[in-house]
Amino acid sequence: MLHRDGWNIGWVNIVLCAIYVNLSLLRVACAHSSSVMIGEFDRLIFGPRQAPAGYPSFRINGKPIKHVEKACYLGIWLQTGTRNIWKEQYAVKAKKARRAANVILGLDRFVGNLTAWDMRTLYMARVDPYLTAGCDVCLDVNFKSLKLLESVQCMFLRRMLGLGSRSTRAVLFSETGIWPIKYRRTYLALKNLGYILKLKTEDDKPQRPVWNALQQSLSLARTKKLSWINDLRIVLAQLHVPVTLDISSEMTGAMIEDAMKEVKHSMEAWIDSELESSARTRDLLPGRLEMDSESGKLIKKSLDFRHYLRITSTNHRRALTRMILSGHSLAVERRRWQERGKPVVPRDWRLCCFCKTYVEDPPHAMFMCEHPALMQIREIFLLKLYAEVPDVRGKARTPWGFFRELLPRREITPLLAKLAYDVSKIFDSAPMLCVYPPASSVA
């Protein structure tokens, strides 16, 4: 039984519940010389379904209480009739998050192009609260519900970076420093658990009801029954690197802090694994170094807000981002998919539309191709580059190595972004070269 002012009544015996509701609420109303507003109550029935005639009549002062399948209690939506009682919670919050995301993405019509950092700030302020709402109660044991939240997050980050819907998911987080929503919700649930464990007095008596509820959940988990703790253990076990939560002994704050660190390491391991295994990112992104603001040294960061996203020119920033994250329109990417009746071809056959000799990938287009227009803008780029950072000359022996050498150097990032933009314009103006391997090599 739910009241819209934020309290509920729960009973196992439905008949006794009906009697209790009628008597107790009338007693409270009489004691305060007030009346019971029947419109403020909803009733939900969980458990095995029965015929309507099998349920007792729920009435207050002779007036029936409305039966509903969905209701909101303290900001958390509950739903009966389905195995996942949090199904409506995910659907409602995903819808609100998408609405907030679309508003942010449409701001450029009124205020002009936003910087990537501004969009990230607005995401954390307006979208993330919806995606994490109720994460300390509703644990992500249902993949279909979790995907509703993940789709909103990925949609926003792709639009923020200027990438298409086929981009690699891991780069959305490695480049922006935003946690995947699956890991963020799990981390916050553990953080809330650590807070609850601190709600004890010096004589070890429970200080708040929530601490007592946690002890009951632990008791259920230790007897291998359904409980919040067991759901949390399931979620932790399903991470890329499974995290174990030991409940055989007394749970402590130090144990939870260790679990939170393991969740973070699991997330970083997933991102590193995705970047190393994907053909679209393994040539440039794995093991990449980033300048540490505290030590001033180049260190490896699995996820961070990358410095090239701070480029002020939107066109230049997006062009460089697409070159780095394989979201460009060069043949090495376009011929990865079926496009306008053109079949997929092996990587070695995605040749440059100008020189028709080498694979048309970002390093070749930016630093190698001998097309006159490309050589002209490259000559200007190299003159400015060697004047700015003369020590970079001769350090790399391959095009990909040269790209990796330039990427962490913040002082020449705007120059590199302009080169990426100019090169992209030249290749976009030329038709893509379509060559096919012999039938024997395809087989």
Question: Can you tell me about this structure?
Answer:
- This protein is of the alpha+beta class.
- The protein contains 17 helices and ten strands.
- A hairpin with a 3-residue loop joins strand 1 (2-3) and strand 2 (7-8).
- Among the domains are: 2-68, no CATH class; 321-442, no CATH class.
- The termini are far apart.
- Mean pLDDT is 86; it is low at 1-7, 9-21 and 32-36.
- Helix 11 crosses helix 16.
Numbering strands along the chain, what is their spatial order in the largest sheet? 2-1-3-6
Q: Count every helix, treating DSSP H or I runs of 4 or more residues as helices.
A: 17
Helix and strand composition category: alpha+beta
- Unreliable spans are 1-7, 9-21, 32-36
Average pLDDT metric: 86
Percent of residues in β-strands: 5-15%
Count of beta strands? 10
Q: Helix share of residues?
A: 40-55%
Shape: elongated
Termini separation comes to 65 Å
* Cα radius of gyration in angstroms: 29 Å
**For the report, how would you describe the main beta sheet?**
4 strands, mixed
The SSE string, one letter per element, is EEHEEEEEEHHHHHHHHHEEHHHHHHH
Transmembrane segments: 7-26
Keywords: Membrane, Transmembrane, Transmembrane helix
